[in-house]
Amino acid sequence: MINFHGKKINFFQKCIDYTEILPKKSWFKNFEELWTPSEEIALKELRNFIRDRINSYSDGRNFPNILGTSKLSPFIKHGQIHVETIWNECIKTKTIGTSKFLAEIGWREFNHTLINHFPHMTKNNYSKKFDKFPWEKNVKFLTAWKKGMTGYPIVDAGMRELYATGWMHNRVRMIVGSFLVKHLLINWKEGEKYFRNCLLDYCKASNIGGWQWVAGCGADAAPYFRIFNPILQGEKFDKEGKYVKKWVPELKNISIKFIHKPWELKDENNFKLGKDYPFPLVKHEEARVKALNAFKKI
């Protein structure tokens, strides 16, 4: 409100009402219960991580059913804490876990360096030979992957955690990424775009770098023949199926023996595959062979 020669003029009468730009569905309400975006909370989380978890970080970071990571990435993304602050606090604790954690911080900076020196990789493959890779367009498979309905429990658990919380465990990010590009042969750009739209900790450099790493087309990328077996990954890092049962509740009564391969179950607890939970989109062994043949073409 400004007064011009005794006449008051309000320049804000035609401003947009903030309620008009909120989503029609209150899907974000759950985030408000899970995350408190403030510098105070970020520093508290850092102190708790250093005190309680950093010493066991090397191993703990691999198990999605426990709190073994720092979960600081959303705070870094939104400016509540700086990586330099994290670094300076962590170097006060000299352990193997600390070294591993700081190495991960280093990877984040490395990815930023990559997109600065090789800006073409923000939209295309770092490795140009992948421009000729025979990706497949399959809307049905892509939609099932996004919704966590692939028929592979560890993959589906990760995708549902992402949609519900805006975050996904790092080990599981690699599993679901590998599944999309190597089991389904869908372009990594589709996965990068979906993560971009869902992640609270979305970082352009880390997201692009991570997806190109898992696809094999990035700098220092995973070798083309490294294809994560979602069954073995689940059995190794979610042995008792606690993570799967949390995010895929339709499998909560399935025994540990079959929790990561429910298609081998024979009518246990009135569970019916195809009705209560989907059949696998692809068979791992067949998908692996198909992926290896596709990679040989380039």
Q: What are the defining features of this structure?
A:
14 helices, mainly alpha, two-stranded antiparallel ribbon, globular, 298 residues
Description of the structure:
With 298 residues, the chain is an all-alpha fold. The chain is 49% helix and 2% strand. The chain contains 14 helices and two strands. The chain has helices at 29-34, 39-52, 57-60, 73-77, 83-90, 96-117, 139-147, 153-165, 170-183, 188-198, 204-215, 230-237, 242-247, 284-296; strands at 2-4, 7-9. The protein has a two-stranded antiparallel ribbon. A hairpin with a 2-residue loop joins strand 1 and strand 2. The longest helix has 22 residues, at 96-117. It is globular. The termini are far apart. The mean pLDDT is 92.
Secondary structure: elements and pairs:
Layout: E1 2-4, E2 7-9, H1 29-34, H2 39-52, H3 57-60, H4 73-77, H5 83-90, H6 96-117, H7 139-147, H8 153-165, H9 170-183, H10 188-198, H11 204-215, H12 230-237, H13 242-247, H14 284-296
Antiparallel strand pairs: 1-2
Helix pairs in contact: 6-11, 8-9, 9-11, 10-11
Largest sheet: 2 strands, antiparallel
The ordered string of helix (H) and strand (E) elements is EEHHHHHHHHHHHHHH
Mean pLDDT across all residues, rounded?
92
Radius of gyration: 22 Å
The helical percent reads 40-55%
Number of strands: 2
Overall shape: it is globular
Q: Strands of the largest sheet, in order across it? A: 1-2
Briefly summarize what is shown.
The chain has helices at residues 29-34, 39-52, 57-60, 73-77, 83-90, 96-117, 139-147, 153-165, 170-183, 188-198, 204-215, 230-237, 242-247, 284-296; strands at residues 2-4, 7-9. The chain has 298 residues and is mostly helical. The radius of gyration is 22 Å and the shape is globular.
